[in-house]
Design goal:
It contains 1 helix and 2 strands. It is mostly loops. The chain has a two-stranded antiparallel sheet. It is globular. The chain starts with 16 loop residues before the first helix and ends in a 46-residue tail after the last strand.
Length: 101
């Protein structure tokens, strides 16, 4: 039997799904060297509806090495990039991230 994996729930001050998606992407891009974090399994939820989760990335295995980095439910073939979100703007930490356009 394998040991259970632990989940870190990281609340934010963000008030929109777009802002949370941008932050999740920024965390993945800046912490991808930390092998203990499985960003492919990232999900988002509203604070009062944590049982309703939104999957962020497709995460399908690619031929060769790596996993699909496109958004979950993307159109077209999987790939290392594609429907990437822009990096989060510096906001001082407490303000809302800019919306994805």
């Amino acid at each position: 039997m394998t040991a259970p994996r632990w989940i870190i729930h990281l609340p934010t001050t963000l008030t929109s799904l777009d802002g949370a998606l941008i932050l999740a992407t920024a965390l993945r891009d800046s912490l991808s060297h930390v092998t203990a974090i499985d960003f492919g399994e990232t999900t988002l939820s509203e604070e009062d509806s944590q049982f309703l989760r939104t999957r962020v990335w497709c995460d399908a295995r690619l031929d060769g090495a790596g996993r699909c980095r496109r958004r979950d439910g993307h159109a077209g073939p999987c790939g290392p990039a594609g429907e990437e979100l822009p990096p989060i703007a510096a906001t001082g930490g407490a303000e809302e991230a800019p919306p994805v356009v």
